[in-house]
Amino acid sequence: MRIDLVTLFPEMFTGVFGTSIIGRAVERGILEIAYTNFRDYSTDKHRHVDDTPCGGGAGMVLKPEPIYSAVRDIWAKTAAYSGKRCTIIFDPAGPVFTQQTAKELSDYEQIVLICGHYEGFDARVYDLADRRISVGDFVLTGGEIPAMLVVDATARMLPGVLGDETSAPTDSFFDVLLGYPQYTRPREFEGKTVPEVLLSGNHAEIARWRREQSLLATLQYRPEILSMAKLMPEDLKFLALQSK
User: Fold this and answer.
1) Region of residue 162 (left: phi > 0; alpha: psi -120 to 50; beta: else)
2) How many Cβ atoms are within 10 Å of 211's Cβ, its own excluded?
3) Residue 156 clears pLDDT 60, i.e. is over it
4) Which of 120, 36, 130 is nearest to 87 (CA)?
5) Where do runs of H (alpha helix) occur along the chain?
6) pTM of the entire predicted model
7) Half-sphere exposure of 17 (CA within 13 A, CB side)
8) What is the pLDDT of residue 9?
9) Does the pLDDT at position 197 exceed 60?
């Protein structure tokens, strides 16, 4: 997969994408990450990318011309991905990014992420995007941190990125439900012990315990998402017992 980041601050991504799982995915050629500073596409002598809002108001608004030129240049240089790419803009009006969104994005061969700043984009910039994404109901300085979040979550879905291919399906929210509790050695720590079922070697019982713990965690901490999960009859029976 190729990911293009359209940003005024490409240096913000170096540490995050140069280490750990994402860094190894880049080294192994599973993931290609490219950066485009749209200030390079400004045509005035001072390389302005923003201007005062029409009609008055506080702050500065990102001009459409540099962003259009930058994105269109990316599209032209990566024409082989045409029809297999998704161009995204970060906007509070968009649906909130979820694990399901990450799964959907992992099916594309190219993602172009447009990172805003200041008071936001000229409204005409939104016409470049295939979809808008929000990362939550709060305000950030720019789109760089949301872009990091989207890249990290999406890259985990790509074959070969994780060392263990069974890791992603056990993540919280992969199948809507929260994840089950995990344990490792030592067997006992400060009076707290690893549940015996996990040491039993009975894989069917372990799988059942983990499913039930996942259901319990979701019921306790995020009950509103239970209705979105694909629940089996045995899941419904288990949950009914918990409500008695």
Assistant:
1) beta
2) 16
3) yes
4) 130
5) 14-17, 20-27, 64-77, 99-105, 144-155, 203-221, 233-242
6) 0.84
7) 25
8) 97
9) yes
**What is the Cα–Cα distance from 176 to 85, expressed in whole angstroms?**
26
H-helix or E-strand spanning residue 198? none
Strands, sheet with 2-6, edge to edge from the N-terminal-most edge strand: 32-36, 2-6, 110-114, 85-90, 131-133
DSSP-based three-state secondary structure for 23: helix
Instruction: For residue 189, count CB atoms less than 10 angstroms from its CB and return exposed for 0-12, middle for 13-18, buried for 19 or more.
Output: exposed
Report d(CA 180, CA 178) in Å as an integer. 7
State both tokens at 113.
Answer: 């992420």
DSSP-assigned beta bridge partners for residue 219? none
Q: What is the DSSP letter of 121?
A: B
Residues annotated as part of the active site: 92, 119, 156, 171
**Nearest 5 degrees, angle CA 116-CA 122-CA 123?**
105
Nearest partner of 215 among 194, 235, 233, judged by Cα:
235
Residue 176 to residue 225: CA distance in whole angstroms: 7
**Of 145, 147, 142, which is closest to residue 59 (Cα–Cα)?**
142
Give the mean model confidence (pLDDT) for residues 42-66: 93
